[in-house]
Amino acid sequence: GDDGVVAAFAKATGAGARVVVGPLVRDDLKAIATAGGALPWTIALNQLDESSALPERVFTLALAVESEGVQLARRANADGVRTVVIIGSDAPLQKRFAGAFTGEWILLGGAPPLTFLLDRSPDMLALLRREVKRAAPDAVLLAVDAQEAALVRPYLGQATAYTSSQVNDRQSRESLRELDAVHFVELPWLADPSAAAFGRIARPEYGSTILERLYALGIDAFRVAQAFVHGEPATLEFDGAIGHVALDRSRHFLREGALLQFRDGEIVPAGSR
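-> structure tokens emitted (273 positions)
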């Protein structure tokens, strides 16, 4: 609202709202968390830092990249991967993604990954090729954006590569071919648009994967909000537009998306032939 998120929450509470969906922005969620006062049941569409506690009655349903890092670490472990190299950028989002992967990977018994900071210069890319070849990892995690992933993939040899949904950003056909054999997590809403589960839901054309992902988040947030109308549900788990969603004891909705891969310039389910 024009008067800020705290005032907006106060207005909603005064109007008798049973459930509030939002805020979407992390700084607004921080403002709510530090403002004090009683809140309605709140489904926040972002999450606080790990060290910050949620206020009472606040739950989080978010498209956090950390959940993708955790999912990919589990997948790599299940695939029999034993050694991992991480190639990352300085972007805060990518650092969070790499950190979540590393934390889960180590919890699963994996050795700390060898990490390289991406430098786009030809000389440094050539050096990166040599260093990756010398390390001979079973897999590489790309904690980079879509354009950087397409740039660096040809320098990685035959190692299996994993990355986040950020790679699926309306890439050119040429870039898709550069990304061959890269595995990534995506929302079912985008991974399988023709799925019967979504057949009766309107699908606007936004021309932006960011807005399409937020729309999918809204679909599942509506379902979650309905479940809270009469109070906190004892359990809540479903297959939704953003993935398999399950409420945990810390009041976070855990999300597991669809695993896809690039193959011959196309996007296909991971492991398909």
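The chain is about 35% helix and 20% strand.
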